[in-house]
Amino acid sequence: MSVREAQSRIDSAEFAEWIAFNNLEPIGEERGDRRAAVIAQTVANAHAQGRHHFQLDDFMLRYGPPKKQTAAEMKAILMQVSNQGAKRAADRKAIEKRRAEKKSAPAKAKR
Fold first, then answer.
1. Is 51 helix (H, G, I), strand (E, B) or coil?
2. 77: DSSP letter
3. Rounded to 5°, angle at Cα 82 from 85 and 59
4. How far is Cα 92 from Cα 86, in angstroms, rounded to an integer?
């Protein structure tokens, strides 16, 4: 239905009611975007391990022109990602070391 046809079929009061309804129960793609964002937020917070709690808005799609980032902002993001990768690698090495120590501990105790 075109805008002109809709205007000929409903008055401004009914249109205002539809706007209010859409604010309470979004119609269309925005609703699907919110559902996906809720799932992404839940998964991210489950894996955050208390370090950071994500908000729903962190996962909502944004339409329109992208925000311009400064070189300093880009560098800060890359450093954060790099630091997380280095921490995960260090955590993995520590876990592997503990596993190796546990495997060798029973062998030492039997001697």
1. coil
2. H
3. 85
4. 10
